[in-house]
Amino acid sequence: MPTEPSEPRPTFEYRPMFGRVLACIVGVVCLAGVIGLALAGDNGNLLRTVWLPMLLAFLAFALFWRPKIVVADEAVTVVNVFHTVVVPWGLIERIDTQYSVTLHTPTRRVSVWAAPSPGVRGAIGIERADVQNLSTSAYGAGNSVRPGDSVSTPSGQVAFVLRQRWEELQGEVPANPAPGALLYTLHRTTIAVFGALLLGFALGALLP
């Protein structure tokens, strides 16, 4: 039977700082470009070319600013570019870092866009201290330690927090909840805006 946790654990949220800085830089450059076109007074040229900086700025927001992962006692919330997935702990079978931090569930693999793996070249070695506080069960059956598991990398930091919380919650959450407990939400507004800007860019390119 699940037992009650002794006290609430802090919520962990990860959104890469580099991505936010990059999104801001791209946004500022695109805004400066739009302002420059507007000040030039050439409305025809503005109508043709304004779509590209708007598209780039929106892509920077969608790709680098919005994605994040939130680790709480109730579930893990993964906000990716075009969708958000809420994964109850009881559905997690394995946590992997081969290409990015990935939660394996009975029905789908949930990759964390905000925490990609650095690959072999990005992490020369994994110190034993990185994983010494976790048992092998935290890695899941058949899952080996990878370069992306090093806590000196963003993916390793996120994976370490996930595995540590996963172990702490053993016995406190119901095992194997219904597959429908995994909540998948499509970012329809993001997709619609991206489509509209892409269409505007294509039409602008066709204008004389």
From TrEMBL:
Keywords: Membrane, Transmembrane, Transmembrane helix
Signal sequence bounds: none
InterPro entries per the UniProt record, alphabetical: CFP-6_PH (IPR019692)
Protein name: PH domain-containing protein
Residues covered by the Low molecular weight protein antigen 6 PH domain: 66-106
One Pfam family recorded for the sequence: bPH_6
Any coiled-coil regions, as ranges: none
Membrane-crossing segments per the record: 21-40, 46-65, 189-207
Keyword Ribosomal protein: no
